[in-house]
């Protein structure tokens, strides 16, 4: 495992140099490899509680809770990403949606963490105080529900999320499979065509609306 990760880290640093990205020093490459190893070992050593996983279709919550689903699309060539966030109430109706473009994103792992952070900040902007944040990135959700000190490359982003979370009366973070996160996934994909921040209130793009309508409880 160590040999494979080291080769991958060196290959990544080499590609950055070839394609005009940032220059990686030996110390920076070593830190990158170490962070990835720690991330991998934490996932293996710390099994995910079943209570954090809902690999099902989107499901409604209590009347007082608004659910925010998030997902991210990462562009390797431009080192950019798009966060797609969809907020829905207990009957499955879209309350709000947004697309956040980001520049200077190193990899897909960071893109997912940034999307989660944007989901939390979006909930604060809308002044909701009872929320559930859902995404299909298991490692980020596990870290947010862990009490262990995080040493991965997204530790600062996780710290920002926890700081924002203190403003809510109740907030939970839950992992869902792709089937339960289709609307946010589609919104992130649609977001590739936009170069700026985009909001919807009580609606979203046509495809996302169709997916949300299909998820609504009978």
TrEMBL record:
CDD domains for this protein: RNase_H_like (cd06222)
Record domain RNase H type-1: where: 69-189
Pfam family, one: RVT_3
Transmembrane annotation, as ranges: none
Gene3D superfamilies assigned: Ribonuclease H-like superfamily/Ribonuclease H
PANTHER family named in the record: BNAC02G40300D PROTEIN, RNASE H TYPE-1 DOMAIN-CONTAINING PROTEIN
Entry protein name: RNase H type-1 domain-containing protein
